[in-house]
Design a protein that fits this description.
With about 625 residues, this protein is of the alpha+beta class. About 50% of the residues lie in helices and about 15% in strands. α7 packs parallel to α10 (about 430-455).
């Protein structure tokens, strides 16, 4: 049994691309002469973060442009997958072929194309569900070939250069015993070829010079007509790479040591906090409980003088202010926690691989909607425990608070994306589908779960609440609300900030994120850190005779979202070169929404950890 567990853990942490394919998924096999069409996905730029449809630029078009139906995640990412005139025959090499007749680009289109070139856009294509990649070699690692997602539209500059010739390199593996061809690699080597550099005979073309370094580039002049001839070549190359491992090229683990450092860093923080918690629970708290339970009245008084947490036993479960909002926030945190655990687990099993574009986002959205039942139930029972009586309004608030806020932000951003004619702008039908998902599934589940939770018996508290609230004495400076909340958020942030760098890089620099095993482990470490830091500070609060822990416990673990947002500001200023009002607005709005999601999730973790802790320590002492 232990050997099986070890193998499972090893598979999660050192998952290879082969783990990304579900049992039963079969590769597409081709025979010689089969025609394969290259598909276009979109154009992206790390400088603008605004994706555009492939045919928003003056490229050669097929007779009929067909758009593939995308899933919800692909639509939200701005993918608009369509066919292209690039037509490849299996095992047929092409030295040079024109894509269409020489194109005259109007002045207005030339200006737009020139601007896209200056913004350093990349073009993304697919062949047999494999993304196009550009091979490059780093100066500090000359022996290691690396791949960049997509290919550059051109070279930015005062006179931007357009890459109008694509050398397509298709790597194949021959299956045995069928003797059929499987595509295991798709490289694109872009080249700029100016007017008059090719000899054209129908669809066939050829370079007039054998020295490729002497070929003049295709410049694009803004505000003027430009003549461009698009062409391509095809080379089929054998490979020993198996089809099941073909994503290894894109997902090569170049930062494995950094990931392990992230895990060690997080574990160090956990061990440090665990030591503090152990001291509190095993030594101090046990001693306190033992003294409180002594029958000698004089010993009880001595214990009370030494520690003060028993003094507030008649107020520690007094309902806080604004229980309606607190219940809604806690319910949303439970909903997000359930979604995160299931999504990460599915990703670790290989069901949400980069090969399934948009699957991760689609599953996360649907799970959030369906997990509303659990979030609503927990919120309803908590609201009943806190002596709430207006369950209908609170249930609706729990259902609309976070989705409504996030939806309103995205709806406003959509206007800016529409104005930019970006492919990331949601179509009206997709907006209706999301609205139906929210109002038709999520809201009824949350409200229904809230109703059943409210009907359940409230949580049992080990002590009664006094009618007259006790006055809270003056607290030391570091136990003040603002200071303690800000201090508590530091350690949870330190546990995740290294992995956070890779996540931000994947989101904003157009890279694949695939280390879900590491991410799941870091997530569990984050849960432990949030619980432990909240327990420590709540214990010190109670010792200081401050029984207002309800809201404080939620804010303390959730405050690490403040540091995550500050880190995203640092990442924006130091790692990215985003310019323009709309790209900056997109970055900070999405960053704020991500941090709000993170804060709600961690806040719920800290709250329930504190609730369990308080209920247990007061249940362990004898109260007259």
């Amino acid at each position: 049994m232990m050997e099986v567990l070890k193998l499972l853990l090893l598979g999660i942490l050192l998952q290879e691309a082969s783990g990304f394919y579900l049992p039963g998924v079969q590769p597409t096999e081709y025979i010689e002469g089969d025609v394969i069409n290259v598909k276009a996905v979109k154009m992206t730029s790390v400088k603008t973060q605004i994706p555009y449809e492939y045919y928003s630029m003056p490229f050669c078009k097929p007779e009929v442009v067909h758009y593939r139906s995308e899933n919800l995640g692909e639509v939200l990412r701005g993918d608009r997958i369509s066919n292209t005139p690039y037509s490849l025959k299996v095992m047929e090499n092409v030295k040079c072929r024109t894509l269409c007749k020489e194109m005259t680009i109007p002045a207005a289109e030339s200006t737009k194309l020139s601007q896209r070139l200056k913004e350093d856009y990349s073009v993304h294509m697919l062949l047999d569900n494999l993304p196009a990649a550009t091979k490059f070699v780093r100066v500090d690692m000359p022996d290691v070939a690396q791949y960049e997602h997509g290919y550059k539209l051109g070279v930015p500059g005062d006179k931007p250069v357009l890459n109008n010739h694509l050398a397509l390199v298709v790597r194949y593996h021959i299956s045995v015993p069928e003797k059929r061809y499987r595509i295991v690699g798709f490289e694109v080597q872009p080249l700029s070829v100016g007017n008059g550099q090719l000899s054209v005979d129908g669809l066939t073309c050829g370079f007039k010079t054998a020295d490729m370094k002497t070929i003049k580039a295709q410049y694009i002049e803004a505000g003027k007509e430009n003549k461009v001839l698009y062409s391509y070549s095809v080379m089929w190359m054998p490979s020993n790479l198996a089809w099941a491992s073909r994503w290894d090229t894109y997902l090569a683990l170049k930062d494995g040591q950094v990931h392990w450092f992230s895990i060690i860093n997080s574990l160090t923080i956990v061990l440090f906090l665990s030591g503090i918690v152990a001291i509190i629970l095993v030594r101090t708290l046990r001693r306190d409980i033992a003294r409180y339970n002594k029958l000698d009245e004089e010993d009880i008084d001595d214990a009370i003088e030494e520690t003060g947490w028993k003094l507030v036993h008649g107020d520690v479960f007094r309902p806080p202010v604004n229980i309606k909002l607190l219940s809604a926030l806690i319910g949303t945190g439970v909903q997000l926690f359930s979604m995160a655990v299931i999504t990460l687990s599915l990703a670790c099993l290989g069901m949400l691989s980069p090969a399934s574009r948009g699957a991760l986002m689609s599953v996360a959205i649907f799970l959030f909607a369906f997990m509303g039942m659990f979030g609503g139930y927990m919120a309803g029972r908590l609201y009943r425990t806190l002596k709430g009586d207006n369950w209908k309004d609170t249930g609706v608030l729990c259902a609309v608070l976070f989705p409504g806020f996030a939806g309103a932000c995205c709806f406003l951003l959509n206007f800016f994306l529409w104005a930019k004619q970006s492919s990331a702008a949601l179509p009206f039908t997709t907006m209706l589908a999301l609205l139906a998902l929210w109002l038709g599934i999520s809201l009824p589940l949350v409200v229904g779960g809230f109703y059943f939770g409210f009907r359940k018996q409230p949580y049992d508290h080990p002590v009664r609440t006094n009618q007259i609230p006790r006055q809270v004495p003056e607290q030391v400076w570091y136990m003040g609300r603002e200071v303690s909340v800000l201090l508590a958020g530091i350690l949870p942030f330190c546990a995740v900030f290294i992995e956070l760098f890779f996540i931000l890089t994947a989101i904003w620099e157009n890279r694949f994120y695939y280390m879900f095993g590491f991410l799941l482990l870091v997530f569990f470490i984050l849960v432990v850190v949030c619980c432990e830091i909240t327990l420590v500070i709540v214990y010190f609060m109670l010792c200081g005779e401050n029984y207002h822990w309800w809201w404080r416990s939620w804010m303390m673990s959730g405050s690490s979202a403040i540091y995550v947002f500050l880190y995203s500001v640092f990442y924006f200023t130091s790692k990215l070169s985003i310019a323009g009002f709309v790209p900056t607005l997109l970055y900070f709005t999405y960053s704020f929404l991500m941090c709000a999601t993170y804060g709600l999730l961690t806040g719920g973790i800290g709250f329930y950890a504190s609730y369990w802790f308080v209920a247990n320590i007061y249940g362990a002492v004898k109260i007259d």
